[in-house]
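It is worth pausing here to work through a concrete case rather than discussing structure prediction in the abstract. The textbook approach is simple: state the sequence, then state the predicted structure, then interpret. We follow exactly that order.
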Amino acid sequence: MTAEPTTLAQRLLDAQVQFWLQQLSPERLQQILREEIAYLYTQLDRITLAEAVPPAKIKATAHRYALEMDYGGGIPELFGEIANLVYEHPAQDNTTLGSVFNHHLVREFLEKAFEPSGVIDRFLQNVQHSEPFQAFLTDVILLALKGYVLEENVLVRKVPVLGSSLQKLRELLDDRFNGVQDNIASATRSLLAASIDRTLGMLDQLLDQDVYRDQAMIATQNLWDELRDQSLGRFREYTTEEDLQDWMVLGYEFWRSFRQSEYLKTIIDTAVDFVFDKYGDDSLQKIITDFGVTYEMIESEILRYSDDVADALLRTGMAETILRRQLERFYFDADTLALLQ
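Step two, the predicted structure:
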């Protein structure tokens, strides 16, 4: 092989590298991007979601970042520092709660929450009739009864002889019948537990749920009316920076535990399958339009960062290195040199 084709290949390589470096200038690059973005956008109508990417790859990406990626310690540390910065920021003292949360939306939210047979009604009913709550209520009543009879009874306090007699009786029973106090407490607890469900049912009948629901909603709305004009900084009275950091750590630890659950993996896979079932046969243009993404949004975001990226590549010399490495493979390929021959 003569030196002629190799020399010509080198000259062509240098010329093309210089050509593309000139295209990375801000004036030329933006024009090129506008032309190519416009062309690509017109082609999106020809490609469906199922043709563009298989659901298995989307699932794999979601699994990697949600389930498998090991986040470094810098991430929670960074979030903690940002949270502390926000906590101390002067804007907290100049911003009211009402300016952050729309007043009418808060009202609608409260009305929805307190509506008959709504989420609060169902939650309270489920808690009220649950076994743990009934056991707790039984223990509270038993404790109150014991305290009232043996310690807090006014008659016992006013008549020392009666109090002394009760004390001696309890000591006698404990001495003669070991564990009788525990047995009495156990029997009383069983009796209360047997009747507590009926008691709750009777309360449901006696209390006017609509009245109490309306009163609770009005009280909550009044509380909101009082709080909405207070600054966000006022709430520093209820939490410290240490509290905020602790909540950040707890939230991060919860996420680390939750992301390992089979439940999250199932939810991700189900969501991806649903999206492909719903949009798999639709064009990419229809999908992004349904999502509210317009051509102007795509163009503006790409052009917003293109100049900075290109400037960094040119300034550091990375652009020329990358171009030469890629184009050299073409110009010094045997088939290319044969053509130049």
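Step three, interpretation. The mean pLDDT is 82. Residues 97-230 form one domain.
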